[in-house]
Amino acid sequence: MPKRLVSVRTERPWLDIVSYGRKGPNQTLRFDPGQREQIARIVSRVPEVMVKVTGGGRSVRQVKDEIDYFGREGDLAIETDDGVALKGQGMEKFLTDDWDLELEELRSRRWVDGKPGRKAPKLVHNLMFSMPAGTPPLKVLAAARKFAQEKFALKHRYAMVLHTDQKHPHVHMLVKAMSEQGVRLNIKKAALREWRHDFARYLRELGVAANATDRVVRGETISRKSDGIYRASLRGESTHVRKRVEGVASELLKSNIIVESGKDRLLEARKEVERGWKIVADALEQGGQHDLAAQVHGFRGTLPLPATEKERLAHGLLSRMNRSQVSGIHRRDNAEARSRL
Q1: Buried-most residue among 115, 190, 248, 298 (CB within 10 A)?
Q2: Confidence band, pLDDT 50/70/90 cuts, at residue 149
């Protein structure tokens, strides 16, 4: 009997393309309808959802700051779990009082007293649900609302707000870490993976094409940045990104070759993914799914070449800047270094 790959928590079919590649071609696979639908979405490059934890306040002050950011200092209405829309100055105090966060902060401080190096546990988790540009914003909000109702209603207090001031519509959701039953929410990677699948499913129920797959399966090698770097890069203010770009520019001036130790690992991972997709295509052919198998072969042939962050930055620099511009960055670096001597 072929092994059926499922999530033991959800009993929904899951795909493990990388695992297929590692095991080699000597295996028999059969795909149920749910798995075939997932394969079709991947090879058709259906838009991918993003669900991520973007931080979380460990103090009432931090939580109020987050609420100010989400609500754009009172300009946007924040939707709560009891159906109330909060807007205007003072909503952050109303929400933290309503959730008894001062009491939770006091309990957290007692828990870490006398324990050097221990951080107080989070009072809230900050989640973000995002879709690519062009997705109807109100449907993103509706899917996030259903997610919150399914996962947190009558357990964890929550509030959310839709942001449309950037190209990709996204919802910020604040979730109280301690439930009404006294159980703390602890978010693991497996939970986030499951949440992505759920959010994508809720969007599809609303008629929005959405998918949730691992980056490596799609041939992507871009690593995720921390929330602070991510937010700053959206504003064009990320010092991390600027330093990386300037470092690559200096390296290009010296040798025009970007060498990074992680390239070998990327290449090996890509081989496993390509082998995995070939096994999937062969299994579909054997099962009579010829059209889908042809799509898989086409998808496999168009996977982008794996590239490290340095290589991607170098390609971008060489595409946008001429040699004199790169030299200008180098001269500025040298001038700044001399000024510090």
Answers
A1: 248
A2: very high
Helix (H) or strand (E) holding 160: strand 158-163
**Residue 262 clears pLDDT 90, i.e. is over it:** no
**With bands split at pLDDT 50, 70 and 90, how would you rate the model's confidence at 182?**
very high
**Helix intervals (H) in the chain:** 17-23, 33-43, 60-70, 91-98, 101-112, 137-152, 189-205, 227-235, 239-255, 263-286, 290-301, 309-320, 323-339
Lowest mean pLDDT among 30-34, 206-210, 290-294: 30-34
In the β-sheet with 50-53, what is the strand arrangement from edge to edge? 50-53, 124-130, 170-176, 158-163, 78-80, 85-86
Contact 303, 219 (CB under 8 A): yes
Tokens of 117: 């190096």
Range with top average pLDDT, 9-23, 137-151, 231-245, 264-278: 137-151
The alpha carbon of residue 10 and the mean position of all alpha carbons in its chain are separated, in whole angstroms, by: 21
Tokens of 179: 């439930």
Q: Which of 189, 281, 273 is nearest to 19 (CA)?
A: 273
Q: Does the pLDDT at position 199 exceed 50?
A: yes
Q: Which CATH number fits domain 50-205: 3.40.50.2000, 3.60.60.10, 3.30.70.420, 3.30.930.30?
A: 3.30.930.30
Show me where the domains of the chain are located: 50-205
Write b or e for each residue in 247-259: b if 16 or more Cβ atoms lie within 10 A of its Cβ, otherwise e. ebbebbeeeeebe
Question: Comparing C-alpha atoms, which of 312, 329, 217 is closest to residue 260?
Answer: 312
Q: Whole-angstrom Cα distance, residue 30 to residue 6?
A: 13
Contact between residue 100 and residue 63 where contact means Cβ atoms under 8 Å apart? no
Q: How far is CA 241 from CA 192, 238, 270, 282, 309, in A?
A: 26, 5, 26, 42, 11
pLDDT band at 317 (very low <50, low <70, confident <90, very high): low
